[in-house]
Amino acid sequence: MIAGAIALAGLIVVPAAAQSAARIAVPAADMSRPHVYLMRGLLNIFSLGMDQLAAQIERDGIDASVYNHSLAETVVVAIVQKYRAGDHGPYILVGHSLGADAVMTMAQELDSRGVPVALVVPFDGTGSYAAPSNVACVLNVTQHAYMRAGLGFHGRLQNLDVSADSSIDHFTIDKSPRLQAVAMNLVLQAARSESCRPGIAGPAVARPQKAPAPKEMPARSASPGLRPGHEG
Which of 7-11, 32-36, 135-139, 153-157 is the least confident region? Predict the structure, then answer.
Protein backbone atom coordinates (compact mmCIF):
# COMPACT_ATOMS: atom_id res chain seq x y z
CA MET A 1 0.00 0.00 0.00
CA ILE A 2 2.89 2.37 0.71
CA ALA A 3 4.29 1.80 -2.80
CA GLY A 4 0.90 2.54 -4.32
CA ALA A 5 0.57 5.70 -2.28
CA ILE A 6 3.97 6.90 -3.48
CA ALA A 7 3.06 6.19 -7.12
CA LEU A 8 -0.14 8.20 -6.76
CA ALA A 9 1.40 10.95 -4.64
CA GLY A 10 0.10 13.62 -6.99
CA LEU A 11 -3.47 12.39 -6.57
CA ILE A 12 -3.70 11.06 -3.00
CA VAL A 13 -2.21 12.46 0.16
CA VAL A 14 -1.53 9.78 2.79
CA PRO A 15 -1.49 11.18 6.35
CA ALA A 16 1.90 10.90 8.06
CA ALA A 17 0.37 8.96 10.96
CA ALA A 18 -1.04 6.34 8.58
CA GLN A 19 2.35 5.97 6.87
CA SER A 20 4.03 5.44 10.25
CA ALA A 21 1.45 2.84 11.25
CA ALA A 22 1.98 0.98 7.99
CA ARG A 23 5.76 0.97 8.48
CA ILE A 24 5.29 -0.51 11.96
CA ALA A 25 2.73 -3.12 10.89
CA VAL A 26 4.73 -4.61 8.02
CA PRO A 27 7.83 -5.62 10.03
CA ALA A 28 5.62 -7.04 12.78
CA ALA A 29 3.89 -9.33 10.28
CA ASP A 30 7.21 -10.36 8.75
CA MET A 31 8.65 -11.33 12.15
CA SER A 32 6.60 -14.53 12.38
CA ARG A 33 8.51 -17.63 11.36
CA PRO A 34 8.53 -21.27 12.46
CA HIS A 35 10.66 -22.31 15.42
CA VAL A 36 11.36 -25.88 16.52
CA TYR A 37 12.66 -26.49 20.04
CA LEU A 38 14.11 -29.95 20.71
CA MET A 39 14.68 -31.09 24.29
CA ARG A 40 17.20 -33.79 25.24
CA GLY A 41 16.86 -36.10 28.21
CA LEU A 42 19.30 -37.01 30.96
CA LEU A 43 22.94 -35.88 30.72
CA ASN A 44 22.71 -34.86 27.04
CA ILE A 45 24.11 -38.22 25.95
CA PHE A 46 21.04 -40.45 25.50
CA SER A 47 18.95 -38.19 23.27
CA LEU A 48 21.20 -37.44 20.31
CA GLY A 49 18.32 -38.20 17.99
CA MET A 50 17.20 -34.68 18.83
CA ASP A 51 20.40 -33.34 17.29
CA GLN A 52 19.86 -35.49 14.22
CA LEU A 53 16.33 -34.15 13.80
CA ALA A 54 17.49 -30.57 14.33
CA ALA A 55 20.04 -30.96 11.54
CA GLN A 56 17.36 -32.31 9.19
CA ILE A 57 14.96 -29.51 10.08
CA GLU A 58 17.58 -26.81 9.53
CA ARG A 59 18.39 -28.29 6.10
CA ASP A 60 14.81 -27.40 5.21
CA GLY A 61 15.45 -23.79 6.19
CA ILE A 62 13.59 -23.92 9.51
CA ASP A 63 15.04 -22.61 12.76
CA ALA A 64 15.79 -25.49 15.16
CA SER A 65 17.44 -25.34 18.59
CA VAL A 66 18.42 -28.19 20.95
CA TYR A 67 18.43 -27.89 24.75
CA ASN A 68 18.67 -30.10 27.80
CA HIS A 69 15.36 -30.75 29.55
CA SER A 70 16.59 -28.84 32.61
CA LEU A 71 16.38 -25.60 30.58
CA ALA A 72 12.67 -25.99 29.85
CA GLU A 73 11.60 -22.92 31.83
CA THR A 74 14.29 -20.78 30.17
CA VAL A 75 13.03 -21.87 26.74
CA VAL A 76 9.43 -21.11 27.72
CA VAL A 77 10.41 -17.58 28.76
CA ALA A 78 12.20 -17.07 25.43
CA ILE A 79 9.16 -18.28 23.46
CA VAL A 80 6.83 -15.99 25.40
CA GLN A 81 9.11 -13.01 24.74
CA LYS A 82 9.21 -13.80 21.01
CA TYR A 83 5.46 -14.20 20.84
CA ARG A 84 4.75 -10.96 22.66
CA ALA A 85 7.23 -9.14 20.41
CA GLY A 86 5.19 -10.16 17.37
CA ASP A 87 6.78 -13.46 16.32
CA HIS A 88 3.80 -15.80 16.25
CA GLY A 89 5.66 -18.83 15.00
CA PRO A 90 4.33 -21.48 14.53
CA TYR A 91 6.03 -23.00 17.58
CA ILE A 92 6.88 -26.70 17.61
CA LEU A 93 8.20 -28.74 20.57
CA VAL A 94 10.00 -32.10 20.27
CA GLY A 95 11.62 -34.08 23.09
CA HIS A 96 12.98 -37.46 24.15
CA SER A 97 12.73 -39.19 27.54
CA LEU A 98 12.83 -36.48 30.23
CA GLY A 99 12.83 -34.07 27.30
CA ALA A 100 9.52 -35.61 26.19
CA ASP A 101 8.10 -34.92 29.65
CA ALA A 102 9.49 -31.40 29.37
CA VAL A 103 7.76 -30.56 26.08
CA MET A 104 4.39 -31.55 27.53
CA THR A 105 4.85 -29.39 30.63
CA MET A 106 6.24 -26.58 28.45
CA ALA A 107 3.08 -26.69 26.34
CA GLN A 108 1.00 -26.47 29.52
CA GLU A 109 3.03 -23.50 30.74
CA LEU A 110 2.71 -21.74 27.39
CA ASP A 111 -1.04 -22.32 27.59
CA SER A 112 -1.13 -20.46 30.90
CA ARG A 113 0.72 -17.57 29.25
CA GLY A 114 -1.50 -17.38 26.19
CA VAL A 115 0.96 -18.73 23.61
CA PRO A 116 -0.38 -21.19 21.00
CA VAL A 117 1.67 -24.25 20.07
CA ALA A 118 1.30 -25.90 16.67
CA LEU A 119 2.79 -29.31 17.39
CA VAL A 120 4.25 -31.33 20.28
CA VAL A 121 6.19 -34.56 19.57
CA PRO A 122 7.26 -36.51 22.68
CA PHE A 123 9.50 -39.53 22.09
CA ASP A 124 9.02 -42.09 24.88
CA GLY A 125 8.31 -39.85 27.83
CA THR A 126 8.45 -41.27 31.34
CA GLY A 127 4.86 -40.36 32.20
CA SER A 128 1.43 -39.55 30.79
CA TYR A 129 0.38 -35.92 30.42
CA ALA A 130 -2.67 -33.96 29.34
CA ALA A 131 -2.50 -32.03 26.07
CA PRO A 132 -3.57 -28.44 26.86
CA SER A 133 -6.04 -26.33 24.90
CA ASN A 134 -3.39 -24.18 23.17
CA VAL A 135 -1.91 -27.14 21.27
CA ALA A 136 -3.12 -28.01 17.76
CA CYS A 137 -1.47 -31.44 17.40
CA VAL A 138 0.31 -34.03 19.54
CA LEU A 139 2.20 -36.99 18.07
CA ASN A 140 3.26 -39.18 20.97
CA VAL A 141 5.80 -41.84 19.95
CA THR A 142 5.83 -44.22 22.88
CA GLN A 143 6.41 -47.67 24.31
CA HIS A 144 4.17 -47.28 27.35
CA ALA A 145 3.12 -43.72 28.29
CA TYR A 146 0.00 -42.46 26.53
CA MET A 147 -0.92 -38.78 26.34
CA ARG A 148 -4.53 -37.70 26.75
CA ALA A 149 -6.69 -34.73 25.88
CA GLY A 150 -6.79 -32.08 28.58
CA LEU A 151 -9.54 -29.60 29.40
CA GLY A 152 -10.42 -27.57 26.31
CA PHE A 153 -8.19 -29.54 23.93
CA HIS A 154 -9.75 -29.64 20.45
CA GLY A 155 -6.78 -30.61 18.34
CA ARG A 156 -5.40 -33.90 17.04
CA LEU A 157 -3.73 -36.36 19.39
CA GLN A 158 -2.09 -39.58 18.22
CA ASN A 159 -0.40 -42.12 20.48
CA LEU A 160 1.93 -44.11 18.21
CA ASP A 161 2.71 -47.28 20.19
CA VAL A 162 5.97 -48.95 19.09
CA SER A 163 6.20 -51.41 21.98
CA ALA A 164 5.78 -54.38 19.63
CA ASP A 165 8.91 -53.45 17.68
CA SER A 166 11.78 -55.39 19.25
CA SER A 167 14.33 -53.34 17.31
CA ILE A 168 13.45 -50.22 19.31
CA ASP A 169 14.11 -49.45 22.97
CA HIS A 170 14.13 -46.31 25.09
CA PHE A 171 17.64 -45.36 24.01
CA THR A 172 17.13 -45.88 20.27
CA ILE A 173 13.55 -44.70 19.75
CA ASP A 174 14.59 -41.12 18.99
CA LYS A 175 17.29 -42.28 16.55
CA SER A 176 15.10 -44.64 14.51
CA PRO A 177 15.16 -43.39 10.89
CA ARG A 178 11.63 -44.69 10.42
CA LEU A 179 10.22 -42.80 13.39
CA GLN A 180 12.27 -39.70 12.64
CA ALA A 181 10.73 -39.67 9.16
CA VAL A 182 7.23 -39.82 10.65
CA ALA A 183 8.04 -36.93 12.99
CA MET A 184 9.80 -34.91 10.28
CA ASN A 185 6.82 -35.15 7.95
CA LEU A 186 4.51 -33.66 10.57
CA VAL A 187 7.06 -31.07 11.72
CA LEU A 188 7.48 -29.75 8.18
CA GLN A 189 3.72 -29.63 7.60
CA ALA A 190 3.20 -27.72 10.85
CA ALA A 191 6.12 -25.36 10.16
CA ARG A 192 4.63 -24.52 6.76
CA SER A 193 1.14 -24.12 8.26
CA GLU A 194 -0.11 -26.97 6.08
CA SER A 195 -1.51 -28.69 9.16
CA CYS A 196 -1.67 -28.30 12.96
CA ARG A 197 -2.73 -24.67 12.86
CA PRO A 198 -3.51 -23.42 16.39
CA GLY A 199 -7.04 -22.22 16.88
CA ILE A 200 -8.47 -24.38 14.12
CA ALA A 201 -10.36 -27.37 15.48
CA GLY A 202 -9.33 -30.74 14.04
CA PRO A 203 -10.39 -34.34 14.53
CA ALA A 204 -10.76 -35.63 18.06
CA VAL A 205 -8.31 -37.93 19.80
CA ALA A 206 -7.36 -40.85 17.58
CA ARG A 207 -7.29 -44.41 18.80
CA PRO A 208 -3.85 -45.61 19.90
CA GLN A 209 -2.03 -46.92 16.85
CA LYS A 210 0.33 -49.84 16.95
CA ALA A 211 3.33 -49.25 14.72
CA PRO A 212 4.12 -52.32 12.63
CA ALA A 213 7.48 -53.92 13.24
CA PRO A 214 9.91 -53.67 10.33
CA LYS A 215 9.84 -56.60 7.94
CA GLU A 216 12.67 -59.09 8.25
CA MET A 217 14.81 -59.68 5.18
CA PRO A 218 15.01 -63.26 3.81
CA ALA A 219 17.96 -65.20 5.23
CA ARG A 220 19.65 -65.57 1.85
CA SER A 221 19.87 -61.80 1.38
CA ALA A 222 20.76 -60.92 4.96
CA SER A 223 23.99 -59.04 5.53
CA PRO A 224 25.76 -57.69 8.61
CA GLY A 225 24.55 -54.28 9.70
CA LEU A 226 22.42 -52.35 12.09
CA ARG A 227 18.81 -53.29 12.59
CA PRO A 228 16.30 -50.53 11.79
CA GLY A 229 16.05 -48.16 14.73
CA HIS A 230 19.51 -48.92 16.12
CA GLU A 231 22.50 -46.66 16.05
CA GLY A 232 26.05 -47.71 16.70
Answer: 7-11
ω into 90 cis (within 30 of 0): yes
pTM of this prediction? 0.78
Beta-carbon contacts of residue 11 (< 8 Å; ≥ 6 apart) = none
Other CB atoms within 10 Å distance of the CB of residue 163: 12
Q: State the Cα–Cα distance between residues 50 and 166, nearest whole angstrom.
A: 21
Length of the chain: 232
What residue spans define the domains of the chain? 29-212
Q: CA gyration radius for the chain?
A: 21
CA distances from 218 to 214, 215, 221 (A): 13, 9, 6
What is the distance of C-alpha 94 from the center of its chain? 5
Q: What is the pLDDT of residues 114-130, one digit of tens each?
A: 999 999 999 999 999 99
CATH architecture of the domain with residue range 29-212: 3-Layer(aba) Sandwich (3.40)
Stated as kind and residue range, the H or E segment containing 142 is strand 135-142
